Amino acid sequence: MFADRAKIFIRSGKGGDGHVSFRRELFVPNGGPDGGDGGKGGDIIFEVDEGLNTLNDYRHKAKYCAQPGEEGGKKRCHGKNGTDLILKVPEGTLIKDAESGKVIADMSGDNKRQIVLKGGRGGKGNMNYATATMQVPKYAQPGQSAKELWVQLELKVIADVGLVGFPNVGKSTFLSRVTNARPKIANYHFTTLNPNLGVVDLDGGKGFVIADIPGLIEGASEGVGLGHEFLRHIERTKVIIHVVDAASTEGRDPVDDIYKINEELKAYNPRMATLPQVIAANKTDVIYSEDEDPVERIRAEFEPQGMKVFSISAVSGKGLKELLYYVRELLDALPKEAVVFEQEYDPNEYNPNDNLPYTVEKSEEEENTYVVEGPKIERMLGYTNLDSEKGFQFFQNFLKTTGILDELEAAGIQEGDTVRMYGLKFDYYK
């Protein structure tokens, strides 16, 4: 089965904790702090592998974690950095945040390698906190937390031309005649299950890639049948070849079919309606009507709308050369840039402290005392060395920028009142 979607959990490595230790050597009775820094956690990196064409490997394993950094050591020894985890994907893979659906990375074009989750930085050892007033710091900084995320991987086939049409109109036969692809060909009334890629070789090395998008049905844009599974593969194409059964071998009206398919394309992604489209009126070798030429009827309907119509027979090869050279001309006239989806969300900009809760309440047990607590406060205190001047300045700035001081004032705090945070007490002064 062609695997073009997978949902996986990724987690970068936690930063190693800083170390608390003191120099203890013979003839050095009062050695200073020598605790080393922790190592950086490993990154989660996505990398394009030209040898892959499906996401099948990610169907069998859903959890991927980079290595954490090691803790710092004695004698100013730096902890070892965690090993990065490199995840190989085929070109054209889109990485999205599974919850919001926003694009994190598009592994296409020049983007062959991207760090999606950065590892946590290592914590500083106590050797960094020695000051003139604090010569024996018994505190080291914890390593930064790991980042974790559920992501949706989607493979959007990279092709210059998308082949669309109702099932059983001859798309697979067309592809096998004009390219090196070898799709399964039979009288299927439903749909080809996998998108087939083929390369058209023209004189002068001016070939192009065609993707046979599996046969669409009405309601595909709403997910009926396997609509969404297949429609995503034409989002990168620049030109559409619309194959239609001009002979109406199954009693379908080719003009009506073209309108219906185009409505599905437009409903799925409005950009599809703006792409140049060429109509391949197929199966002309089995047209027996003497009254009306169905190809001329198709031309009269769609060429005034800017869609060139070619009379072809995928079985005999009639009209194929003219069609392919016309498509090459269309491609030459279009911008050369590949369709690459812009990044909409960077998980590395997310600060895990941002959404952590906290409470500001007046104590019921102690008079003129206010209690501030919650995961946000607890984590901040874990990172902050309140014994140093810089650390205390950071603490005061944190209270101000997060709005905690405003909330204390709204709760009625007065100068001289006490603020309690997890065993720490401070007098409040403006």
From TrEMBL:
Q: Outline the subunit composition.
A: Monomer.
User: Would the keyword Acyltransferase be found if you checked this record's keyword annotation?
Assistant: no
The EC number of this protein is: 3.6.5.-
Coiled-coil intervals, chain numbering: none
State the organism named in the record: Hominisplanchenecus faecis
| The protein's name | GTPase Obg
* Annotated ranges, domain OCT: 350-430
For this UniProt record, the keywords arranged alphabetically read as follows: Cytoplasm, GTP-binding, Hydrolase, Magnesium, Metal-binding, Nucleotide-binding
Q: Which Pfam families match?
A: DUF1967, GTP1_OBG, MMR_HSR1
CDD domains attached to this UniProt entry: Obg
